[in-house]
Automatic annotation (TrEMBL):
Belongs to the metallo-beta-lactamase superfamily. RNA-metabolizing metallo-beta-lactamase-like family. Bacterial RNase J subfamily. It comes from Deinococcus phoenicis. Binds 1 Ca(2+) cation per subunit. Seen in 1 crystal structure, it is not clear if it is physiologically important. Binds 2 Zn(2+) ions per subunit. It is not clear if Zn(2+) or Mg(2+) is physiologically important. The lineage of its organism: Bacteria, Thermotogati, Deinococcota, Deinococci, Deinococcales. Substrate binds at A251, S252, N253, H382, A383, S384, G385, H386. The gene is rnj. An RNase that has 5'-3' exonuclease and possibly endonuclease activity. Involved in maturation of rRNA and in some organisms also mRNA maturation and/or decay. This is Ribonuclease J.
Amino acid sequence: MTNPAKDAQAGQAAAPAQQDTQHLEVIPLGGMGEIGKNITAYRYGDEIMVVDGGLAFPDAHQMGVDLIIPRIDYLQQNAGLIKGWILTHGHEDHIGGLPYILPRLPRVPVYGAGLTLGLVREKLAEFGIKEGDTDLREVQLTDKVRIGKHFGVEFIRMTHSIPDNAGYILTTPVGRIVHTGDFKLDEEPSDGKLSDLGKIEQAGKDGVLLLISDSTNAERPGRTASEADVARNLEDLISKCKGRVFMTTFASNVHRIQNVINIAHRQGRRVVMEGRSMLKYAQVAQSLGYMDLPEPLLTNEEVGDLQDQQILYVCTGSQGQPMAVLGRLAFGNHAKIALRRGDSVILSSNPIPGNEDAVNLVINRLYEIGVDVYYPPTYRVHASGHGSQEELATVLNLARPKFFLPWHGEPRHQINHARLAQTLPRPPKRTLIAKNGDVVRLGADEFKVTGTVPAGGVYVDGLGVGDIGDDVLLDRANMSQEGILIMTAVLHPTPHVEIVSRGFVRANRDLDGQIRKIALDAVEGGMREKKRLEDVRDDMYGAVRRFVRKVTGRNPVLIPLIVD
């Protein structure tokens, strides 16, 4: 990932005091000021407790990057102080980075609920990490655990878009912290298990020093729609579809997939599940008892003589990924299935920020094929897993915190959450808008940022982890926008220059000839002056760069080569 030695001096200089027993440090290493790669460290004296270890997906400008995981320099530099780990739930932005993170740190207890750890085990196995190399400990969401000498953790069940989602109450020597985790206050959850607000209310009565709360939907008034509302809307829609139905959603949304399976059974349709991640989540959820199948799932080969109105596909591709099932169907690249008029496609999801263009491209292609397409907000077939303003206010009113740290959101979400808190009858005494890497110092009467530690993202590109940086991405962006021009100067027996370009301009003999002449003049001039080859190469680069910019107005990536 990163080289701890390289940043050790800076990291240690920024780290909090080694033995401060009057204050606790809250150190977000990911998930603060952004949505994704959530990981937070709590430090008291010589002990550290860590929460989650997620990933983020790249933006459109981060070309070629597969995933982004958080920098853990601070944890590596203080590895001997880590006493335990808490996992809130099984979404990628909270557990997806663990296969990269856990092998680089000491083996410590990792606590999580059944489905969460089931998904973690699956991920670790994919990376060839043996279960014996980790210490995964399953908990119920009514449990309390002790981490080190200083951290007491009481789990809180909170409704979300995945089962076994948890917040927690953290008891520390300086006071009580309530962390909501991701949540919405769904009054009709699919599994019938409501958020345990009684624990938050009791903590508020006992005294909450700090509330850390989900800010994702802090801009949205009212309440977030219930999963039961989505199920009713999906059933109404599916009942009217005449041909095959293709439904896509997040593979981790086990509740919604279960509801769709039940709807299909009531509507006389057999379910075919397509897509690797969809099958993986379903298998883990089934094996652990979180998914119940009224009928066995079919493979596409088992569809046989079923009529179109008897088939419902649940597939991957809700985010417009070109290699996911829906993307391949939209562009006619699926090896076994082809969409046709009369089919219906339901996108039961919203695009993650940054994926809007990819999703719109798929939707437009589906329209061109002639299938019926249903997606939000026109059709109410999706509900967020995060609470809106009324729900956020409810948690604030129950917890009655002295201090408040809006979390899990971009700056606009955090700031709107802070403003919401100030409108309540009993607002927090102080609210901080923190960033990744901030060391937030917390005491009975103190709540402020006192320093920073290394933070940010590490790019995963193919099999490489951390071996590309922003400079490489800048080169990729330049090549995508301006093209590339390779100049090879051969010095012997007679100096001449070869030009190869890609994405620059269409074949243009006149321009190529002019570039060759400019490059050759620079090379021959350097040879006459008996310059070093490196200097000859630089002269050729500079002369061609100036010429190309002057005559084309473009700035391609130039690669000069000298062959002696």
